């Protein structure tokens, strides 16, 4: 079984609190690369906007 299908998160939704920077941002990016729809929450709007780009 290919590893990409093993970790596929297509059609899944994830909420990452603290996803604007640091470990949270890395987790959000990993989830997005695996196909998830990711929502990012952070205390700073600018951090969320940068993570979304």
The count of DSSP E runs of length 2 or more, i.e. the number of strands, is 2
Count of helical regions: 3
Poorly predicted runs: none
**How many separate domains make up the residues?**
1
Please give the alpha-carbon distance between the first and last residues: 32 Å
Q: SSE string, helix = H, strand = E?
A: HEHEH
Instruction: Briefly note the structural class of the backbone.
Output: alpha+beta
Shape: elongated
Helix content: 40-55%
Radius of gyration: 12 Å
Describe this structure in words.
This protein is of the alpha+beta class and 53 residues long. The chain has one domain. Strands 1-2 form a two-stranded parallel sheet. Helix 2 links the parallel strand 1 and strand 2. The N and C termini lie far apart (32 Å). The model has no long low-confidence stretch (mean pLDDT 88).
